[in-house]
Amino acid sequence: MILGPLFRGHRFERSEGLKSWPEIYLPPITDVDFPILTLKDTNLGMIPVSSNKKLRMYVCGITPYDATHLGHAATYLAFDLLNRYQRLSDKEVIFVENVTDVDDPLLERAKRDNQEWQELAHSQIELFRSDMTSLRILPPEYFVKVTDSMNLVEDFIGLLEKHGLLYSVEKDLYFSCKEFLRDLPLTMDEAVKVFAERGGDPQRGGKRHPLDPLVWSANVEGEPGWESRYGFGRPGWHIECTAIACKYLDTYRSDPVIDIQGGGSDLIFPHHFMSSQLVRAALGRDFSTHYIHTAMIGFEGEKMSKSKGNLVFVSKLIREGLDPMIIRWALLSGHYQQDRAWSLELLHKATAEVALIRAALAQNLVAPTRQLIEDIVKAVAENLNSPVALNRLVEWADKSRREPLVNESGVVSRAIDSLLGLAL
Ligand code: ZN
User: Fold this and answer.
1) Residue range 354-365, pLDDT digits in tens
2) CATH fit for domain 299-420, picks 3.90.79.10, 1.20.120.640, 3.40.718.10, 3.40.50.2000
3) What residues have their beta carbon closer than 5 A to ion ligand 1?
4) Which one in 5, 9, 161, 326 has a CA-CA gap of 20 to 30 Å to 371?
């Protein structure tokens, strides 16, 4: 069963919806071959990405109440490298990112701090935009708030309803997922446990299957809600992303609907799993060709997370006078799919290396550049291997100090600006 695009007859222009952040010019890199990008897909292993001219990429966005910690920054940086590489290889990338601007943790934080939830969300979205700008992350074509997407969610729920896949528990609506559980990435017991830890309610009485996700939650006194044909309430988490992704990216009736679904590895289950099952149920098509996940950033021996209370924020580091390019360098000096730690030592190393590169770029004569640029392109092409790219740069800067030969520092400056987003 192949159904057409979900939402017809209305083309969204870039200016519509939430304001993204400023576009960045990518200086072209000429005379260098760009091999097809290979990525490590969570389901498929190492695999070349589609050679299609257009790449449709959806990256799950923040819940705006603790933006932007270094774990967030590392994730968006990885997809930024991917985005840059594709564009420099003369491909078009349509990149969509959402903002989960109504959600339990956001409401709880607002309540705790005696603040209006909209005010908290607004201020955190502003902060996120400014952090993304400072870190030189290419903006999405569509940056979409969930609170602007209620009609999309309602339409998406309508498709599930048409296929008889909804039921209610009291006034809340659930998606009956049982027949879509074939590819569960965990054992059932583990899945139920993780589902409970990540916002699910496996134990709730009246559910047909413990893993059935909520798609529309009836309003609770004192919480925000929206009118819909499913009652006054708000959407469940997973369906928000599928409704937004299908709205902005499903324009080609293709199967799968998009090319890349991305996010942190904590989204593999249930969020990305449930999103893919929702799309399969609603449209009869696969959601995404690739699922690409980024590893976690640790701090002082533990995973950086809100529950541990050990978050390090980009805006705080910048306020303390740290150059955002040093933050970018420090995060890129580890591989995006390897859990790694943020530390003072890492920061000092990044500061010294950035100073070394800047000194080389300021020289009239430097070491030859062609092989360097080819090596950096090759490293990025092989699963975004930024640590190898940065090591090559450091070697080149060292060599430039010892054997300066050619007047080509500008070529390196432009290439690392384009490919790695490092404006040094
Ligand atoms: Zn999402």
Assistant:
1) 999 999 999 999
2) 1.20.120.640
3) 60, 241
4) 326
